[in-house]
Every structure is written in C-alpha cells, then in structure tokens.
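Re: beginner question about structure tokens

> Can someone show what the tokenized structure looks like for a real chain? I only ever see the sequence side.

Sure, here's an example I had lying around. Input first:
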Amino acid sequence: MALNARLDHRKPLVFDTHELGRRPGALQRLTRTVDAPRDFGIQGVIEVPEGAPVELELRLESVMEGVLVTGTARASAEGECVRCLEPLGLELEADFQEMFSYPDADDRGRVIADPDKNAVDAEDDEDRLFLEDGLFDLEPLLRDAVVLALPMQPVCQDDCPGLCSECGARLADDPDHHHDAVDIRWAALQGLADSLEPGDKDEKSGAEAGVDEKQEK
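And the corresponding structure tokens:
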C-alpha cells in the first residue's frame, strides 16, 4: 500500500506516537477538541457543521506491529426530519478502533528487512493503515465512524406523523387535520354543471322536461 503524502503534525487530526517508543504495552491517553472538517456526516441529510467542536478521547497502545488506536468522538449534529422536514439536532457519540501499522513490519509485527520489496501480500496491504514517521491521520477513520453513528433517516421524534399528502401541512401541529373525502364521480358532474352558462342550464332543463313529457305519453 502506498503511503499518503507526508503528514503535517500541526494539523489537529494528526497525532504523534513517538512517546510510545515502539515498546509493546506502552500506553498513552489523549483528549483533544478539534473543529469539525467539511462534509462531516451524511451530506444533505444530517452532519456535524463545519467548524463545530468535536471532543475526542483517545487511547494509543503500542503493540508488536504498530499502534492500536481506540477512541470516542462526541459532537452535535444537525439536519432535518425526513417526515416533516423540520430542522433537528442530536448529540452524537461515535466509537472507533483501528490499527496503524509500522511501515517496516508485517501483520505479525515482524520487521521487514526491505520495506520497498513486496514482502507483505498486496491484498492484505490494501486494507492496512500505516504510521508515517510515527504520525497518523485520524480524519478518515473518524469520518467513517461518524457516518456509521448517524441515522440514515433522522426524525424529529419517533412518532412524527409527517406532512399532509394533500396540502403539505405539518400534522404534528394539528392532530385533527383532515380533508373531506369527495367522490370523484360527483366532483366531475359538479364541475360540468359549474361550467355551463345560465342559459345553457335553462335550455337543458327544458329539453329534459320535453323528453319526460314524451315518455309519459
């Protein structure tokens, strides 16, 4: 797996593992509050607004093959109800765990004499994340964890009745909201009657009366 472009330790979601010293069993706990990056969530549905605070609690543990990162992210997400389209907010808590491997070790922690050679199976390599000069970028892992923790179809409340299918009124605001059912056959006849001019109605009535007289004879 090709390594990413050189990481910048000054970025808020890039972490340094040098204090662990590649000593298996060494442990480091970190807390950090960072600004949410852009498009942090399910775009167009619900997401953490760009720049909103994201609280991180991390546990970095040195193991043979790399650093095991376990953490929790907390933030406030915003979106809209999929039923009534009203704005909503929810408190998000996302847990995650990932191994960041040393680039010169295989998946069993054994040192690879020449990391540039294909000593590790390419297919396995594609699924691994690597440390770069002792640094790792948490953003891709954090982004995936947040997306998984967010509801795909957020609602303002579990029993939200949504909108009226006829007029679009929000049903939660008016529980008794309804429309009188109209028989479409009578509606069509009424529409025809309304479209006739007064003279047409009189002529039609006279013609109908003449037909009735003939039928009586």
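Each token stands for a local structural state, so reading them left to right follows the chain. The mean pLDDT is 81.
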